[in-house]
Amino acid sequence: MMMMHRWRRSGDFIRSACKSLSSFRQKHNSMSPSVTGFMNRYESKVNTFEPNAWSHQYRSFGSSSSSSALKVKRNPLFSSLESKDVSFFKEILGERNVVEDEERLEIANTDWMKKYKGCSKLMLLPKNTEEVSQILKYCDSRSLAVVPQGGNTGLVGGSVPVFDEVIINVGLMNKVLSFDEVSGVLVCEAGCILENLATFLDTKGFVMPLDLGAKGSCHIGGNVSTNAGGLRLIRYGSLHGTVLGLEAVKANGNVLDMLGTLRKDNTGYDLKHLFIGSEGSLGIVTKVSILTQPKLSSVNLAFIACKDFLSCQVLNHLDGVRNPVSSSENFYILIETTGSGETYDREKLEAFLLKSLEQGLVSDGVIAQDINQASSFWRIREGITEALQKAGACYKYDLSLPVEEIYNIVNDLRGRLGNLANVMGYGHLGDGNLHLNISAAEYNDKLLGLIEPYVYEWTSKHRGSISAEHGLGVMKANEILYSKSPETVS
Amino acid sequence: MMMMHRWRRSGDFIRSACKSLSSFRQKHNSMSPSVTGFMNRYESKVNTFEPNAWSHQYRSFGSSSSSSALKVKRNPLFSSLESKDVSFFKEILGERNVVEDEERLEIANTDWMKKYKGCSKLMLLPKNTEEVSQILKYCDSRSLAVVPQGGNTGLVGGSVPVFDEVIINVGLMNKVLSFDEVSGVLVCEAGCILENLATFLDTKGFVMPLDLGAKGSCHIGGNVSTNAGGLRLIRYGSLHGTVLGLEAVKANGNVLDMLGTLRKDNTGYDLKHLFIGSEGSLGIVTKVSILTQPKLSSVNLAFIACKDFLSCQVLNHLDGVRNPVSSSENFYILIETTGSGETYDREKLEAFLLKSLEQGLVSDGVIAQDINQASSFWRIREGITEALQKAGACYKYDLSLPVEEIYNIVNDLRGRLGNLANVMGYGHLGDGNLHLNISAAEYNDKLLGLIEPYVYEWTSKHRGSISAEHGLGVMKANEILYSKSPETVS
């Protein structure tokens, strides 16, 4: 009760912190498909590395110790690009949508983390499904490896070439095809940028069921292909629940029309779910049908502090950010509620927080009073990745664990690593999704050896997932058995 | 405004209409798997019937005209049951769980609608996954066809044998394995009856994310295998969103452990989604992990009438049921809301209804005042199937359509059938799910010829689904191309 004065009332702000922070939103998990269909663009056996067999190193950032999963070699069954191939693509796509420019290729070859880098000599920009189909059919016939690419905001090396794959970027396929204001069903092309869809829906009084830090760059097709989680999962559920249909092109060029717009459809296997989260390995998603939600007028945001569970030191590295609560605790929680009854919603959140205070669960907290304050709260949460990058080398793991376990792995790892590195955990408390970050001055083999496979083994032992929302990508393709049974993988 | 007096206040009732109506809840869509794995238990070509080739008729109710999709013949590659097989099963399951009793087999061979009937001579009752695995491994080696069975409440002939398949009923696998009061994740065996799970959760302060008329009999394994929709879909989403994991046994006896309990897990293909709604054709679901929801204390139920869109004549056939609103309109809607703030929730619903009245969208309505009134409202909605059965023969279709189309097909069909039959539509307005019912004095070929394939073609033309929530079963196995593209089916 004594701290009740700290629960300041919020005005009628709408959460907009994200919108003003576009400069560092070009990040996070999004598109990361690795390869189409029937052929692997690299050879690797699950959990069996061939350290002496690989001919290239494609990391351009950090040392060779930034990850242990990159020991793969190019599959010799794939052809190499020839000038006749380029000519063919120019014929079907037009000159300007066949990119050979080195500067543009440099960007397309490099992932957001600058940790993974390919050496593709060609990026194709199809304008529609038919062109994607023609490209893939041709590449299939010529045994040319391809990598689908969207906003290239993934964190696991899935959206860039590993070797010299042809990059198929769907960025020009960015049209909204239909929106039904009764059902809230949006149908659009895969290359639509998530934030653009959000802006479009805002004019209709709707919101996307997902939101994530990378929304200024990531594509809806990539979101679907990687089963992006993000900030609204606990409110609106996963994409397996909200994606109603999709269209995809298989590696042989065949188009799979699964673009339903129905809430219920029980007619045989629901194949679209295989594509959600398959990271492009089954085909390229070209269109998406998704259930959007009515926009709610009342938004409240609370920033609260607790004495235990989680340590958070990122404030040191973000300019102009201050701790919203006076005390410095070990664990902070950001809670956003949305509803339609402003007074009621605010009082409900306040009552919840007051009760938490009285029960000793919370030691301090504040409810945002206006848009600026809300922005500053979100700036902290969304700036964590940026802050960690500034600290030097950073090993990142995206884990799902039973909620009661998510701080134990942080503690265990601190004990294991001692003063070799700083171990930090943040993420999505309601989802049991921990972003485990280990920052050090530089990448080194000794440190990596202490982290991997320890983190994966720890996660597997607790029946967690070694990839909650980022996907496997190149980084964890070989680690799948830590989270899936051999029978399932087979 | 003039009708505001009709919006009576509800007390603090908890919706419990369903609980008192268990006698006629033994129905509706639930378990309906058709066959395990790699072999078809019957031969049929999609959309190509072989009317002269089938050797049996398995319908015991209605004439041969109750459906056109049953023209299938037994696959000669399957063996027939021998006494050595029965001996083997008795050895691994024990005498009492190998059922040869004719009376019990009669029930297990017949579907709830009494429209589909098999002639199996054996029902097996495994007690755990290992026994299911042993059964399937043996049947695989002996080429014995099997049909998985749960509560046998499906409406499309999917949960009973077509010919002489061995029935594998999972009813003895009915244990709750774990429940996490923080995350709300329930893990249980496939044979748990939905209502028993609801009762268990009630003591913990949680509710199942699905509810349906058959809950007194249907099994959670069957719900998952048929992707049951039901009454809470618009509130909590489909099973693709709420089922977090499952365990299944393939036709060869291999166990697939996909029994995760995590909200987020992006490590490769999420195979469990293939099993959700696959009607047993990929394997037998043996365990389920599902996200349940906190029970909300404030429940409101409104029964409202509108002048247009839908005709509903079922009140004639239900004893002791009266129209809750004084006027007799063509279209009724039942709205149930749940929340945590009783006064606020009620006022919100009242304001919504008042606004709808003022705008002329609604012509009359009443909010339930107590449990009895709520029960009587639900009795009407849940008694529709029962009432239609009493009217004589009834052709039932379970369609998904764009919401604006769901009454057009009713109208079109009325025009087409004239006075040959009564055409009625009800269902789930928010989901676009129409239960289209055509009732007549008796089944006959002429009538069937006018209904099928007209209804399927109409649905396909409007990009609807010929099975919203019931599944394909035997009834619609051959009609899949009306709702899925050839490439997808292939």
TrEMBL record, chains A, B:
- What cofactors are annotated for this protein? FAD
Keyword tRNA-binding carried by entry: no
Q: Has the keyword Cell membrane been applied to this entry?
A: no
Q: Which is one GO molecular function term here?
A: (R)-2-hydroxyglutarate dehydrogenase activity
| Enzyme class (EC, first level) | oxidoreductase
EC id:
1.1.99.39
SUPFAM superfamilies for the chain:
FAD-binding/transporter-associated domain-like, FAD-linked oxidases, C-terminal domain
Q: What is the recorded name of this protein?
A: D-2-hydroxyglutarate dehydrogenase
Give the lineage.
Eukaryota, Viridiplantae, Streptophyta, Embryophyta, Tracheophyta
